[in-house]
Here is the input.
Amino acid sequence: MYLKSLLIIFVVGVCSVAQGVDISDRNRETEITLREVGSELWASMTGVVVEGELAYCNMRYGLLILDIKSVVDGARSTVPSPTYVSKARLPGPTFDAAVSGGYAYIGNGEEGILIVNVSEPTAPFLESSFQTPGYARTPVIANGLAYVAVGDSGLLILDITHPAQPEIIGGFCCGVYDLAVQGDYAYALSYGYQLLILNVADPDSIFVESSYQVADSTQEVTDMTFADGRVYFSVIPDGLEIIDVSDPAEPFWVTAYNPGYYFSELAVVGDFVFMDFFEPTYGLAVINIADPEAPYLEGIHYTQGTPRGLQVAAGHVFLADSEYGLDVVDVSMPSQPTLAGRYDAPNCVRDVAITDNYLCAVDTYRGLYVVDVSEPGQPRWIGTCSTPGDAWGLTAAGSYAFVADGYAGLQIIDIANPSDPILVGSYDTPGRARSVAVRGDYAYVADGSAGLQIVNIADPCSPAPAGSYDTPGRSWDVAVSEGGDYAFVADWNAGLRIVNVSDPENPYPVGSFDDWPGETFGVAVAGNYCFIANCTRALGILDISDVSSPWLAGSADPGGFTRGVALADEYAYLAGSFYRGIDVINVADVSNPYPAGSHYLWGDTWDMVVAGGYVYVSDYYGVIVLSIANTCGDINGDGDPVIGIDDLVYLVDYMFTGGSEPPNMWAANVDGQGELDISDLVYLVDYMFNEGHEPVCP
Here is the structure.
């Protein structure tokens, strides 16, 4: 193959028959390729399924598997927290899950059903997905089949004999929004909160056996389950409602009971209904239904955050807490439910910073997390330190992490021992600390409505106020010039503010830029240029050679809301908002910046740090690690940054035998002359076989 390709090149070089193709105006969006290689710190637990000694927890964008062996073994008084086993990151938001036969079937909304192979719990992976015609939320495994509620499109019945390739064998066309299955009957919550009792004995010929109106338009049904001939509903504001369906042809109302809470989900075991609630407080209610016509509140347990799902196993309730992780509640004494263990999980990751082989991340509810990224593809959460406020931003310097902790101001955490970070100092700023930058002995805090606050951190254990400047807007981000003389403040609705901080105790304003509409959220500085992230114009590049008169030297708008900006080499990396991710802008020529790459992320991207060939992204629901590859020379468009013989043959085929145009025409111009011609072939051969120069692409 190599000999054949070289022979072709030789003939081409002799004949020189190729015509040049001008590509100077070609789209360059593949100059940088970002690939997801790892993730950690997933947030927002949305549900839990217990199977044997494992708990399968739905995270917002993934599946988390925890070992609960000590719980199901029955060690009631000595139950430790569940332990981490593994995770699988999944596309899009996940909803309810069912686990059977070594597979987890997960409702994925508009994307249908995700099928995750969990036969080896330490190494789960997405085996396949099944596109449903409607919004897949609730899968139920029963009778060796999968029953899926798909919203307006009704009910689907899938043959899962081959789990990775399910087949539709039946369905029901009316709306189905929640579901329980027992024997030959499916109990479906349909339009207008009507219970449909469907005979599914023959999946190919489903019919309505009977129906019952559960609630009206003034109410909301949040969950349902079947047990012992009855269907139990969670209804807002009425509480628990019980319908007898022992005769599927004639369902009848049994009772309703409301102890004064807004319930979300429920489970029934024996004589008890377990219901999580979120109003007026958060927690778990245990309701005695020994007499179904006279239920009463047996016990109650309060949670730290909002419960989002539960399951009962081995005398315990496994309660998904969307802000704080998984609570394990001992209900062996139903009148006295007791917290037996907890698996902590963050809720919303706002910012990241990197030092040595460690990544620091802040969670609004939980504080600081330390992640080992010595292997970027396998990040590991190794330490945490709670903070008193609502953590928004951070930076790392030396052996300390500096956290902008919202209404609690600046928190200083010693991370010399990454597995045991310790809070050593704090200073309560007057506003709401959003971001922090450090230069020398000073921390510069973007303090919301209180503007810029400067804190002396010469002694990290005793930080002290140094100076301040009340900007006209709401300070959101801050960067400090290399020499430490100027602070550049992203001042939200007041644009950019430049403050002279050469004397930290007496800062004063020297310049501003507020000519763009919309809010300015992020800022970065390099040399004579300041880069601002704006919610309506994306990226602005300001010439700050004269700080008193900054002017717009260039701009780029890949579209969408932009929160943060980071610089590396000749590129600006932009953090977008929901369902956008990262955009990369080539800023080598500040007067003509252009899109150089992008990577779509399912969550809500807040900020990032670029280091060592990787982008570490705070994506609200977790930390995502992306590798950076320059695709100059990726002629065949396979995304592989390593130029190979296949790229060479592809180019020859295009130029001389009528082959397809390279997907990345710009990347094929390896000599950087702005025209694709025979000189590019010669250049490429010289590089590959004669130790010539690397591709340079314009």
Q: What stands out?
A: Residues 521 and 563 are 5 Å apart (CA to CA). The longest strand covers residues 32-40. The chain is about 5% helix and 50% strand. The radius of gyration is 30 Å.
